Amino acid sequence: MTEDDRALVDRFLDMMAAEAGASRHTLAAYRNDLERAAEDVGGSIGTASPQNLATLGQCWAGLSPATVARRSAALRRFFGFIVDEGLRSDDPSASLPRPGLERPLPRILDEGEVKAMFEVLEDKAASGEPTAVRNLAILELLYGSGLRATELVSLPRGALRKGQPFLILRGKGDKERLVPISSRAEDAVEKWLEHVPRDSLWLFPGGKRHLSRVRLFQIVRDIAGLAGISPDRVSPHVLRHAFATHLLSGGADLRVLQSLLGHADIATTQIYTHVDSGRLVELVNSRHPLADRTR
Fold it and tell me: Is 143 a catalytic residue?
């Protein structure tokens, strides 16, 4: 990447942080995709022509459709920025590859499998075993509130206040959202706090800081294995999907679900209507005003 390109990318990422509220991880991903694209173009991306960009389809032939789509999206946003800033008069991004993508349905667990995960921990936690008490609190928050992995591990020690049935979280894009906390989760966290040092900054301390995302992933898989569920089917995000799908099955409104999950676009939430299409058909057949009419 040329020095001019680096300066442009820095300005672009400054904009993404200030105006779009992009997280540190998102900014790093944009930088990486733009640097890889510069290598593949073999020159400056800031001055790349439509013909230069058209060659990327062949360069990226061995990549997955999702990776191609992500890199193309990064370049489109980058070119849109430099055109808006008056640093370039034309936008060459129409020549970028556009792979056909179908959004995959999320992996989910059925209610019986989630129940089995709780049961395997509840017996151990009842005896006061600290690891089981911690893991039960983790499971209650992941499945009971739909927290993202990063949101959970970075919870401060005093995040939950007795008698306050909700959390105020900062999620993706530094956006705040209200998350309900069940009485079960409140009880589980209260029991876990008895094992957390009073001077700890974090609800789930680990090492010098808080529990890492990698360790959280391992914990969730270990619980699944104890419950007789294939560990490779389970992750913190799968429990978040289960939270959403089971709420929808119970009759939750899609807009409410969007708010609980912290989705900026309801199109992201709508994927759960495909997962639970059977319930939606039954809902129309039983609740629609015409359901009681006969031909």
Answer: no
